[in-house]
Amino acid sequence: MSTTFVRDTGTVFYREFTPVMRRPLGLLFSMAQPLLFLFLFGPLLGGTAAIGGETGAPWQWFVPGILIMMCLSGPMMAGYSLLIDLGGGSMERILVTPMNRTAMLVGRTLKEFVILLAQAALIIGLAVPLGFRIHPLGVLAGLALLLVLGLGLSSLSFILAIVSYPGGNLFYAVTQMVMFPLLLLSGVLLPVEAGPAWLQGLALVNPVGYIVEAARALFDGRFADPAVLYGWAAACAIAAVGLVLGTRAMRRGI
Predict the structure, then answer these.
(1) Least confident residue range of 17-21, 40-44, 51-55, 219-223
(2) How many CB atoms lie within 10 A of CB 40?
(3) What is the distance between the alpha carbons of residues 128 and 228, in angstroms, rounded to a whole number?
(4) Residue 173: helix, strand or coil by DSSP?
(5) Is residue 242 within 8 Å of residue 154, measured between CB atoms?
(6) Are 148 and 211 in contact (CB under 8 A)?
């Protein structure tokens, strides 16, 4: 990794993260939905026999799903800030500089992940009194998995924002049409195995579902679970596609 790449990534990260620190209330509002799911939906899962896996603990099953849901709603919507920059002309001024295009993507993505990391720490901390058990190495590995997934989703979101500029209507339509099917077919809220055969068939082609299962295994400390391998493969594939296509889109400009 070159010094120039690190410097450019840090510059973009600082530029993107500074406005977030100036508006901390925005972080609190973004936590409303995950907290509602944690305290109002989570307790309902205790009587569901299909939930809990090998441990039989519904919170070990549900909390990683919430974190994946936050990863979908956060990094996937990262292109919104890019649309604002494009509309104001600030992004075009950056694109004419020799700054590394991949560093632009990574720097913006790191901003999203730092926000996600703070939110994840809050969710995990609140879930512990409810019965969620922490496996330190599993938590670190699970958060690393979220970072890889977020990197890919953010990059794909930036591509969509560039394609949607200047109106932005395509961005909003596609993100809403894609995010909810990915969420529902990944088994984040309820086990897909309890659904009909056609629904299970659709879930098999959803890469997020494999990442959800991997996150559950990692947060539960089951590193040897085959789901971990499949989940990492899916997350790395999404990240690779996002970085390659995103860098190409940045180099071509607007």
Answers:
(1) 51-55
(2) 9
(3) 23
(4) helix
(5) yes
(6) no
pTM for the complete prediction?
Answer: 0.84
Cis ω on the peptide bond leading into residue 191 (within 30° of 0)?
no
Please name which of 106, 78, 75 lies closest in space to residue 8, comparing C-alpha atoms: 106
Residues 57-104 pLDDT 10s: 788 888 999 999 888 877 776 777 777 777 666 666 666 666 676 777
Half-sphere exposure (CA, 13 Å, Cβ side) for 185? 18
Query: What DSSP character marks residue 206?
Result: -
State the amino acid at position 163 in one-letter form. V
DSSP H helical segments within 31-100, as ranges? 32-36, 58-73, 79-88, 90-95
pLDDT tens, 110-124?
A: 777 788 888 888 899
Structure tokens at 240: 């690779």
State how far Cα 186 lies from the chain centre.
13
Cα gap 55→152, rounded to integer Å: 31
- Give, rounded to a whole angstrom, the gap between the first and last alpha carbons of the chain: 27
Helix (H, G, I), strand (E, B) or coil at 189: coil
Which of 49-58, 89-98, 175-184, 237-246 has the least mean pLDDT? Answer: 49-58
Residue 49, burial from CB neighbour count under 10 angstroms (0-12, 13-18, 19+): exposed
Helix H segments across the chain? Answer: 3-22, 25-30, 32-36, 58-73, 79-88, 90-95, 101-127, 136-164, 169-184, 197-204, 207-219, 226-252
